[in-house]
Design goal:
elongated, 5-stranded mixed β-sheet, 45% helix, 3 domains, Methyltransferase, Cobalt-precorrin-4 Transmethylase, Domain 2, Cobalt-precorrin-4 Transmethylase, domain 1
Length: 252
């Protein structure tokens, strides 16, 4: 029923539209042209036309193009109506099996190693954390997650959700890279990672990390962890692991 269909990739969308005999005009709207394309679409909407917005393999405006167009529609007083569709984040949470009365959608981590490890410092939370990752970075990200949260922490690796080669695996972070390496094709496709909830962090744990950060400015990781353990009473091994991760992240 739409007059225009704004597509992340018109070639991909036309395959689906042809399957259902939909012949409406398609217009490209992706990360590189969204602001310019939105102007013409808003003008069409003001003229009384209807516009549908679709993205390739997920939900528009959720780590996909579309947020700018939606914001401009709101600003112009044009009604915006969501339609339930494929959301990789919601699909992965539903298949993870972790308690998810609440969860954090963190989207894509920074591509640079140091910035990625720094970002992980804020994700040790008592509820699941959902990440998106590109195939050429997923291995490095899994290694960084294991370094930050420990080999025993569980993770769900969801690959190609809702597609022909879908895989969902729940395993420890220590085993995740091995799972990825079992089959060459696992290094391809779109990934959603669901990190298992951590323990509720006490004030002492938060203070320990602050103490550790101060000590690391002047001491090597082993000495900093030893002193931080004496000061806070937390396990030296846990603090040493955190110290190594902080040092590794800062060195990149």
């Amino acid at each position: 029923m739409a007059d225009l269909i704004a597509c992340e990739d018109t070639r991909t969308s036309r395959t689906l539209l042809a399957r259902y005999g939909i012949s409406a005009q398609t217009v490209p709207l992706h990360e590189h042209n969204e602001r310019n394309a939105a102007k013409g679409l808003i003008q069409a909407l003001r003229q009384g036309k209807s516009v549908a917005l679709v993205s390739d393999a997920g939900t528009p405006a959720l780590s996909d193009p579309g947020a700018w167009l939606v914001a401009q529609a709101h600003a112009a007083g044009i009604p915006v109506s969501p339609l339930p569709g494929p959301s990789a984040a919601a699909a992965a949470i539903s298949a993870a099996g972790f308690p998810a009365g609440r969860f954090l959608f963190a989207g894509f981590l920074p591509p640079q190693a140091g910035a990625r490890r720094k970002a992980l410092e804020a994700l040790d939370l008592p509820f699941p954390v959902v990440l998106y990752e590109a195939p050429h970075r997923v291995r490095d990200t899994l290694e960084d997650l294991a370094g930050r949260f420990g080999a025993e922490r569980e993770i769900v690796v969801a690959r190609e959700l809702s597609k022909k080669f879908e895989e969902v695996a729940r395993l420890s972070l220590g085993a995740a890279v091995g799972w990825l390496d079992e089959r060459r094709e696992r290094a391809q496709g779109e990934f959603v990672l669901v990190l298992a909830p951590g323990e509720e962090r006490t004030a002492a744990a938060v203070d320990a990390e602050r103490v550790l950060d101060v000590l690391l400015a002047a001491l090597p990781p082993s000495e900093a962890a030893k002193l931080a353990a004496r000061i806070t009473g937390l396990p030296k091994a846990e603090l040493y692991r955190k110290a190594l991760h902080r040092t590794k992240g800062g060195a990149k």
